[in-house]
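Amino acid chain:
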Amino acid sequence: MNKSVLALVTICSAIMTLRISLPAQSEMTGITIGPSLILNGNNGLTFGIDSKIGVSDNLSIRPSIYFPSNGNIYGAAVTYDFNNISHDNKTQFTPFLGAGVNFVNRTTTGIRIGSVVPIVGADGTPIFFPGATPTSVSRSATIFSLNGGVDYSVSDSIDLKVGVSLPLNDKNELLGTIFTIGAGYKF
């Protein structure tokens, strides 16, 4: 089975069973889902879907999926949501801090030298000659990250989010800095 499909099914299954498995006195504080963008210096803009599932007053699970041009990124973070910062009793900012795991599937293309390349001639017949052929290689990785940011409540049903993610390699070295911005509809 494709690893990206397996990761997506695992994340969706966890989300669907979360509400069922919570004790009666622990109510979820809401679900938010909406579009999001990754701002990354290396790859530019990447579109995705970001969400937030409030497990308690100060604990959230934040699953996401992003679609870079060369693969998919599935992720989930557990965050501590600090108390709301309110101004005028209308605008509410909620800072958050946590850690997450991302499943990255990437496909890279390149050229293999020294193989036979089929080229279509002017009359439509293939011509084969030694040279370079295009190749495609799929790779996947599991990356842990530190996450933080701020949720801003625009209204009772709309949230905006600004976040930063610091992905770490298996030696706990920083791989870069990723900024996210997004909007979400609250259920």
